[in-house]
Amino acid sequence: MLRTIKPKNARSKRALEAREPKEIEDPRTAIFVKGTHTGEVLNGVMKDLMALKRPNAISFSKKNVIRPFDDPTSASGSTSNQSLEFWSSKNDATLFAIGQSTKKRPNGLTFVRMYDGKVLDMIEVAVENYISMADIKSAKSTPGHKPLMHFGSELFDTHPRFMQLKSMLMSFFNGEEIESICLTGLEYVISVTCAPTPASLNTASSSTESTALPKVHIRTYTTKLLSSGTRIPRVELVNMGPSIDLSLRRHTPPDPELLKQAMKRPKLKKTDVEKGLGKKRKNMEVDEMGDLRGRVHVGKQDLGKLQTRKMKGLKGGKFEADDGEEDGEEEDGAKKRRTS
Amino acid sequence: MDVSGILASHNAKLDSLKVEKETPLDVDAGYLTVTDPNPIDEESYNSNLEEHLQNLARDGVQTLLASLFTLPTLPSPDGPLAQLSAPKTHLPRAKPLPKPKPLTKWEQFAKAKGIQKTKRDKRVWDEERQEWVNRWGKEGKNKEKEDQWIHEVPANADVDYDPRKAARDERKSRVAKNEKQHLANLARAQGSGLNQRDERKQEIERTLASSRTSTASMGKFDKKLEGEKKLRGVKRKFQPNETSVESEAKASLALLSKMESDSKKMRRDGPVPDKSVLNVRKAVRFASKGQGGVALGRQAAAVKGKKGGRKK
To answer: Where is the composition biased (Basic and acidic residues) (chain B) (predicted)?
Structure first.
């Protein structure tokens, strides 16, 4: 679809190289797209999410006909898929937030994640209660800082749909692998909590479709660090907004093959193995010099059957006592070896 | 000295920071995330939603900060930098893992010899001018030889030895060599899809095809030898015999301008000297038997001197 660009000068070549896959990835860029009809609520939600996601966020100004959940084999579904792939490759973005409000599904927000130019998974949520950042009068955090994230409910570890939501929100806000962080720069926290789990969800026998999934609350707070006398400060939270209440609607789980590819991690470097990461291997260790040493365990050797150098001249001696002669010959042979 | 009091107060302070939960909170320091696997308390949820959520978040963040502030730190101008551990949760990647590129010829050699890569600066200290000069680029030191206003020419040099041109050619040849090596590296990296033998075969076939069509009728009426491939899509185009006056005039003028223009010149000679019949350069070369104009002058002076001497 998109023509492959051949760089004509050094600057475009650098731009192209920046888009190539890397071992440790850059933060994902998100595109905020509006569907054919959005309302005031959805507009506000998308504006606030974009403010939290800056600078890795692109907002499309025009409204687009996009129906992500249509069947990819149908006409409208395949064009939606194609649109997503085209926007992803053109803008080098791997996350989408699509806002669409219909009569049947009011205030719907769809999160889409891409892998290798193809759609990996999608989650649609309904925005129920929304209080924008502007409505909450408080000091806001600096845009561009990394947020802390807090997930509160056991469902985020057990229920597959909530696990997908947690993974999606983590990719959205905090998916970058970093080595170090400035402790003074931890300014705000995004807290995602569920409503209490209804009893029916806990029983394994009940079908998942019939039970209603609990609502999800997203709150954003600025952290105030108070001195506590020890190295660890005491934290107090101030509501910063936005505060969004969602309920889960439709979703597409990721294709298992594609997910397996996406979850591949780069091989551990030697420095990491030295540090002790990776599988604990019993026969490898790092000695004082910093070298990685391994032990190879050979079986017990039968010294009688040892393969030594054959001296043809010593082979004769069949007419005399074997042991005595052999010893003498072996000594001779050994002497010969040493002198040679 | 009684330190038990200080210890007790310290512990009391630490206790105020502790967060007690049924199930310990799961902290993923690598992604700055904390997950609370405790089920939600219905009563506090129903009584005051916002307060309940804020309390939950506060407890979670306290635990997260406790683990973050105990990490090893490095000093930096903006404050302490905490060295984060590797993340525990695995998130899917956005792009596939990069394929390891094969090492170039130099990189293989350097690795075998243990040569480290040193980064050179763009600026270099020029002792003569006592200032920092670009090594390459605008007014770079690599063009010094060409831009000189005076050149020493060795005595055995050619008549038309142009030191500026020689220096420029040397620089350009270095660039060309580097380009050639770069292309060879790329070709090797792409994987020798064709080994040398097959490449040579393809080259031969290409030359054969072009020579077969290098006749007036584009090879249409030549006898085809057995084993030769059939050539496709080779046709000779004939312009119509009668064209309008305007188009013919336009074509002739275009041809003239192409002949005069410098764009498609094969040999880029300098500005042609005055169109005398004599080629001075060649004449001097012949007369001096390859010694050059200076030698000729010396000879002429010697002859003149002798002649003058004799006359006296």
So the answer is: 139-150, 161-182, 196-206
Per-residue pLDDT tens digits for B193-206: 667 788 889 899 98
Nearest CA in chain A to B81: A182
Here the ipTM equals 0.74
User: Which positions in chain A touch B64 (Cβ < 8 Å)?
Assistant: 148, 150
* pLDDT tens-digit map of B98-119: 888 888 999 999 999 999 999 9
Domains, chain A, with CATH or none: 25-251 (3.40.50.10480)
- List CB contacts (< 8 A) between A177 and chain B: 30-31, 86-87
pLDDT of A324 > 60? The answer is no
**How much of chain A is helix, strand and coil, in % rounded to 5?**
30, 25, 45
Structure tokens given for A273: 């193995």
Phi and psi at A189, nearest 5°, equal: -130, 140
B160's tokens: 């038309």
Taking only the tens place, the pLDDT of each residue in B157-167 is 888 889 999 99
A331 — pLDDT class (breaks 50, 70, 90): very low
Is the per-residue pLDDT at B1 higher than 80? Answer: no
pLDDT per position as a tens digit, A38-50? 999 999 999 999 9
- Within 8 A by CB and 6+ apart from B222, the residues are B212, B215
Enumerate the domain spans of chain B. Answer: 3-82, 122-151, 167-213, 245-266+277-311
Please give, rounded to a whole number of angstroms, the shortest distance from the CA of A288 to a CA of chain B.
Answer: 22
Taking CB atoms and an 8 Å cutoff, what residues of chain B touch A170?
31, 33, 89, 91
* Out of B31, B49, B93, closest to residue A25 by CB: B93
pTM: 0.67
Phi, psi of A123, rounded to the nearest 5 degrees: -135, 130
CA distance A325 to A316: 10
